[in-house]
């Protein structure tokens, strides 16, 4: 085999989490290969907003900043938000979480997924990129992982990282099982124009068929995330734009006035999935390859970026101890650092989905009590915000 085809780390999947991982590991001094099926387009600030938006929390933003990516991202059309308002349909109970409770200038930034991907790809100058390429076969040997791509080319790495999403070929090839279920819901997304400005607040109303959320965009519009049971989602998809906007105005209780218009909309299915382990000899999973949660809390991408920081931290510790990048003892450090936190967030979002998806009158009262209690108790609000902003006290270099 060609010597140039040997790497410390081969990452399969060049989306948000995989591309950032490639940048992070290459900057940490590892020889990195990235395998991706399709190169992303360059970011076009004149195009319509990406249908997929993420609320990047301050913790993961530190990672992007430390990698030199945030300056480029922040120069584009991102939007800071300073508060989150949550309320329950049918009750007066509401919860407002503000940045001042955690002493930060903002709670996060709404960023187009395509912008993060394009920015990370621009920083892959020290990474060997195999694209377009798919993983055809993976063989794990005592001293390396051997990857065969769909064009019959081969490469070897001390460690292969699965970062290609919920349908991870690396995870399947490694025989790592998952648990999970469908929520029988779909999330409808699109950029909406409300009658009133969003005031840099993220708005979310819980209904029995799923939450309706508005995330602030830089031009005064909002990114919609309407989680709805499959039957309702199909009904909404069949509406023309005027009828859809009328339904959305009512579903959001006109919190921002009438919804004037919506651009291109799309819907995607929602599910929970968790890998039974994140690592095996010479294999590690990050991002959606390891965990998929209900998006109501907007934490999916943040969890994946925190995975990246902890994986780099573990591999650097291994290298300092003269272990190679695939040493299982150090991969398990990564797993210990991330699995408990990820499972806690999966459990929390799953519990909220079930709590707010029930018409049981006792649970409705419990929801109202929970919101009222969180509003009244400042320590509870601070705890919730601490989790939401991703500042958990990690010792990972890239999060400091």
Automatic annotation (TrEMBL):
Keywords: FAD, Flavoprotein, Monooxygenase, Oxidoreductase. One of its GO terms (biological process) is ubiquinone biosynthetic process. PANTHER family: UBIQUINONE BIOSYNTHESIS MONOOXYGENASE COQ6, MITOCHONDRIAL (PTHR43876). Belongs to the UbiH/COQ6 family. GO terms for cellular component: ubiquinone biosynthesis complex. The lineage of its organism: Bacteria, Pseudomonadati, Pseudomonadota, Gammaproteobacteria, Salinisphaerales. One of its GO terms (molecular function) is oxidoreductase activity, acting on paired donors, with incorporation or reduction of molecular oxygen. Residues 7-343 form the FAD-binding domain. InterPro entries: FAD-bd, FAD/NAD-bd_sf, UbiH/COQ6, UbiH/COQ6_monooxygenase. Component of the Ubi complex metabolon, which regroups five ubiquinone biosynthesis proteins (UbiE, UbiF, UbiG, UbiH and UbiI) and two accessory factors (UbiK and the lipid-binding protein UbiJ). This is 2-octaprenyl-3-methyl-6-methoxy-1,4-benzoquinol hydroxylase. It holds the Pfam family FAD_binding_3. Its cofactor is FAD. It comes from Salinisphaera japonica YTM-1. Pathway: Cofactor biosynthesis; ubiquinone biosynthesis.
